[in-house]
Amino acid sequence: MGGTFKPDMTIDESANDVDVKALGSAIYAKRSWVIIPTLLALLLAAVYVTVARPRYTADTQILLENQESYLTRAQRNEQGMETAPTIDDNWVGSQVALITSRDVAREVIEKLGLVGNPELDPLAKGLGALQQTLVLFGLVRNPMRVPPEERAVDTFEQRLGVYSPPKTQIVMIDFWAHDPVFAAKVANETAAVYLERQAGAKRNVAKSAAEALAGQIGDLKTKLLRAADDVERYRAESGLLAGNNNMTITAQQLADLNTDLSHARSEAADSQAKAALIRQLLRQGRVSEVPDVANNDLIRRIAEQRVTANAQLALESGTLLPGHPRIRELRAEIANLDMQLRLAADNIAIALENNSKIAAARVANIETALDQQKQAVTTANANEVHLRALEQIAQAYRDQLDSVTAKYQEALARQSAATPADARVIAVAVPPDQPSFPKKPLILGFVTLGAFILSLGALAGREILFDGQAQVPDYGHEPVRVVGAERRPAPLSTIERLKRFARARSSEMDEDGETISETEGDEETGEKLAAKFSAPQGINIVATRLGTSEEATDALIGFARTLAREGRPVIVDLDSRNGQIAKLVGPQETEEKMKGLTDLLDGDASFADVIHRDAASRLHFVPFGSKEEFNPDDLDMILDALSRTYDFVVLAAPPFPGNPMTKALAPFADFVVLAAPEGGDAADTRAAREELSAAGAAEVLLVGGAKEAA
Fold first, then answer.
1. pTM value?
2. Which of 75-89, 247-261, 284-298, 615-629 has the highest mean pLDDT?
3. What contacts 210, CB < 8 A, 6 or more positions away?
4. Which one of 64, 186, 405, 517 counts the least CB within 10 Å of its CB?
5. Quick check: 674 and 655 in contact, CB under 8 A?
6. Does residue 113 lie in a domain region?
7. Per residue in 185-207, pLDDT tens?
8. Where are the alpha helices (DSSP H) in 472-548?
9. Could you tell me if 700 and 552 lie in one domain?
10. 598 and 655: one domain?
11. Does the residue 346 lie in any domain?
12. How many CB atoms lie within 10 A of CB 131?
């Protein structure tokens, strides 16, 4: 063929499995590779936990909750009810960030006087000899240039741990140190500083609010006074002076006129009704029944005189006759008194009629005055609208002043020292009696277990990846025994003969076509041999088996797998009836045969379709194919392409004796390999070897159970 053939080198990794039993045996044989690293790790861990300086961790617990009372709380809802601040996850996270701030760390260090303390500043005693040397040569930065306060703060932040358990309002403050008392002291002081800073922040806010509100109060008072003056001045200028019930004078006058008019109309109507009644009673002669007549003093005296005269008339009538002068005198007197009585009643009626007329005139006058007052009130309404606007402005200033004053009083209350923080300590830190680090049992256990697992894993990986042990092919769901795995590999002398043959061929021609001298050393010869294996000149081998036993087939496949350790081999199946490399293919899930040599010769498949890889080695194989037969004369092109790619091309011919294919191919092969079963007849082996040699085989190599002839 014109170019170098590149076969499909991919392999389905899912087709591989691990023989656990073989892997266990390999690991047990090299158990020292696991035991020694494990014991060494245990020893190092024991030394470390013994010499390591213990650390003690103290923790303080803080509960975040609203601590304000009705005296200090300023928040109110729309209905004027007090509301407490909401404590959610974001608020808790903000408090955690506040505790871990550098400002809190500086304040704690300042209050406890920790600047220069060896716990927080390892450089308080100066630089060591090694550090001085490194600084002197400029290899590291001089740490003494950092101020002691900053070094203490950096160490403080590294040792301080603040966190909040999920779904809680509790904040844990942890601090570790080599001295347990020191750790508890720092943790408690950190909590105290946090609470004081939170309360101080609330007092500072209240103080700032009080100062701002005080200025607003002064300004609002000035504005309120000015607005009130404007109201009173405009009220006086417009004549809208206030009367009873906050009514203006014009409105009050209008109301009074309405009242007077009602009274005048009532009085006129009353006088007219009484006069009409008196006239009617006079006409009926019932003067005495008139209430006003009866109550009159004059009429009362006339009535008394009439009664007296009637009494005398009655008395005298008993002794005197009607014509008697005395009787006539008394009757004349009574008649005179009746006339006087009617005149008095008539005068009263006239007086009542006059009163009615006066009342009517008064009503007319009042109506005139009322109309005039209405016009005055209408004129004053426009001024009153402006007055109400001024009053509203003054009232707005008054309400705002009241609100600001109330807030000012609340700010003064919050500004007091009694303002609480929205948190409280629920558990103070105490000096721990057990170190938090190192935990000797845990460290020893984890280090030992980790070393054991790592060393065991490394050994198992080495056995699987490099030594190739315990790898078996997987041909579906049913496990299949690796062919040749339990057989002895090809005799070493056979492989050595192949090496000598390849070495002899490579010595004939170097890469440039020059002859290689026999005096060249073994090292140069080895390089030429390696160059030969990489050159497109593979060794052609015809392989057959003596009989049809599985042992001979396993020996043949074992020989091919042994070649994979020396180069790149490929085995081609030429047996159409009972393929010798069928075990490499494994059980088929379908009856359809794999594509192979016959499909390649007919043009139905490419090299990439017919070349497959053995799951247990680097061996490549080409099955016979789906066709029944092929023409051996067409193998020249296939062999040329394969020999340009592979170092060893093994043609697996049908079993011998009884097949002419092996004899036909033997003269054109570099070697003929005869695989015999265990315990085979030496005479049959010798006869087959002589027959192949007679057919033109350059050299016949024996593999399998039979001993190779000298």
1. 0.47
2. 615-629
3. 408, 411, 412, 415
4. 517
5. no
6. yes
7. 999 999 999 999 988 888 888 88
8. 492-508, 522-534
9. yes
10. yes
11. no
12. 16
